[in-house]
């Protein structure tokens, strides 16, 4: 990876490919490969399970920092703040330096139109946007085939 200072592109490895490793080994292998950080899977079946985020995200962040990497990106399953755990999850990841997270997917119910999905998701996204802004975080949405 080349470049200097603010002009330097920061490249993070999607940790899904290293989920067979513990936090420390994942971070060390990522650093050995020359990446700047880890895009940590903190979702169902990820390195960090959502219900364990408050306990495990600090351990993952410590391992990432211990490998001289930055803990600033993660992949979540969050689509709203209404589930009771998303706010604590996002506050925890923010305190640890994770400023960017990929959100979960809005999955259509059988027979639901795209307009209905967008209509119902709009309120949740508005609420998330306000929360993210107050925390200095950024929730990203990936358009994914399949």
What does the model show?
This protein has a single domain (11-139), classed as Divalent-metal-dependent TIM barrel enzymes (TIM Barrel, Alpha-Beta Barrel). It has helices at residues 23-32, 53-66, 86-95, 114-135; strands at 12-14, 37-41, 70-75, 100-102, 138-140. The protein is globular. By secondary structure, the chain is of the alpha/beta class. It has a five-stranded parallel beta sheet. The protein has four helices and five strands; from the N terminus they run E-H-E-H-E-H-E-H-E. The protein starts with 11 loop residues before the first strand and ends in a 6-residue tail after the last strand.
How is the biggest beta sheet arranged?
5 strands, parallel
The total beta strand count reads: 5
Based on CA atoms alone, the radius of gyration comes out at: 16 Å
Q: In the residues, how many domains can be counted?
A: 1
CATH domain class name: Alpha Beta
Q: In the CATH hierarchy, what is the architecture at level 2?
A: Alpha-Beta Barrel
- Going by helix content, strand content and strand pairing, the class is alpha/beta
pLDDT average, as an integer? 88
**N/C terminus separation:** 32 Å
Low-confidence stretches: none
SS element count, helices: 4
> Beta fraction of the residues?
5-15%
Shape: globular
| CATH topology description | TIM Barrel
